[in-house]
Amino acid sequence: MKKRIAVLTICFGLLLSCSKEDDLSNSSGTVSSIANNKKPTGSSANDLLSDNTFKSTVVELVYVVGFEPTTAAINNFVAFLEARTYKPGGITVIKRAIASPGNAPYTNEEIAAIEDANRTKYNTANQVAIWAFFADGQSTSDTSTSVILGTAYRNTSFVIYEKTVQGLSDSPFEPNRTLLETTVITHEFGHILGLTNLGTALQSNHEDTAHAKHCNVNSCLMFWSSETGNGIGNMVSGGSAPQLDAQCIADLRANGGK
């Protein structure tokens, strides 16, 4: 690896002050509250997992020109959703590019502001909406010894620092880019689904006491990758993205998922 990296970090509850109380009407006339998509990470886990309220999912995937995730990684993300959520109406991905916001590296607040300025899909009566942003810069939380690859920061929102991901993949001794993207995307969405102990209740004692809201099984997708940088290399060394372990799956099933 080029750098020692601390990856798959999570920011929850930091951006609630950015929430709006405005209502948004879509073209069909269905009214949905923007505020329903600006809640704490993990708080909408049951809505995302079950079909009790929402019968389908739309993913609004927005990337800065030149920083589009691979098609395979997007397909892997959809497969992850299909494997763990009940959405008989299906899962739709709407993908588009935007110009660079021009203010990288990004603070959490700037990432939220980009969403606020560009997001068009919000929950409707029977469809839950997800915002996924692929950024053209780094996080301001990066240091000389660690970098952040992704952050889940609201109940239906996450960012992938795609420039950083691309800089740490597809070179000798580095992971395949699709593999790294898949790992980061699904890990961050695991937090949005309430893992680990972040809105989806534990069915067994498997939260890492040293790294809150992460699984203590080192082969699990929700394991905390250490700041030494060995973690992510070990997680993807087998040539495939890590999967949720049985305990995390049990948690999701108890909260309405598959």
Structure description:
By secondary structure, the chain is an alpha/beta fold. It has helices spanning 45-49, 71-84, 108-118, 162-167, 177-192, 230-235, 246-254; strands spanning 23-25, 31-33, 56-64, 91-98, 127-134, 150-154, 157-160. The strands form two sheets. The protein has a five-stranded mixed β-sheet with strand order 4-3-5-7-6, sandwiched between helices. Strands 1-2 form a two-stranded antiparallel ribbon. Helix 2 (71-84) links the parallel strand 3 (56-64) and strand 4 (91-98). The protein starts with 22 loop residues before the first strand and ends with a helix.
Q: What is the alpha-carbon Rg in Å?
A: 17 Å
User: What is the helix fraction of residues, given as a range?
Assistant: 25-40%
Number of helices: 7
How many extended strands? 7
| Helical/strand content category | alpha/beta
The proportion of strand residues reads 15-25%
- Largest sheet geometry: 5 strands, mixed
SSE order, one letter for each helix or strand: EEHEHEHEEEHHHH
Q: Measure the end-to-end span.
A: 35 Å
Mean pLDDT: 85
Low-confidence stretches: 1-31, 226-230
What is the spatial order of strands in the main beta sheet? 4-3-5-7-6
Shape: globular
